[in-house]
Amino acid sequence: MDAPAGDVESAMRTSVWSYAAFGRMLRRLAPPSGASLVGLDFDSARAWPVYNWMGPCKAALRSLNGYLARDLGGLGVRANLVAAGPLRTRAASGIPGFEVLVDRWDRQAPLAWDPADGSAVADAACFLLSDLARAITGEVLHVDGGMHAMATYLDQHPTGTPAEHG
């Protein structure tokens, strides 16, 4: 809650405004056969440890994705997001305590998750960009080893540690 307003504004511009800018560009340039816009998301339905203001930024991105699907669909432009598990990227390097997320995935995702391998996320993005996804828009495709489907301790006790809750 103590993040400087400028940092929050920068995160919102990077995560949300830039996605809208791509939508505006596709609105102007959309070929007659349509186009596809794919953004990178993270599960914003929960308050994850260490994710802080990026959670509300990603929630705004999800909301925007629906509006872009609505506003661009008539032009044949699809807008979708890939909600990835934690990946060791340049953006992740700016999240203090990122390893907390990696550890949670390691312990709770039903499928093995390798935070150093973004190829599954890239494959999903390629699918959404392809004609194979021609009737999909406004969607959030989870590529997170199934973690999004798991009830977790975090769902039951959003704050604190297991020891604090007995």
Major sheet description: 3 strands, parallel
Strand content: 5-15%
The total domain count is: 1
Give the helix proportion (percent range): 40-55%
Q: How big is the Rg? A: 17 Å
Number of strands: 3
The separation of the N and C termini measures 27 Å
Do you know the CATH topology?
A: Rossmann fold
Question: Helix count?
Answer: 5
Derived structural class:
alpha/beta
**Under the CATH scheme, which architecture would be assigned?**
3-Layer(aba) Sandwich
Strands in their spatial order, largest beta sheet: 1-2-3
Describe what is shown at a glance.
By secondary structure, the protein is α/β, with parallel strands linked by helices. It is built from five helices and three strands; from the N terminus they run αβαβααβα.
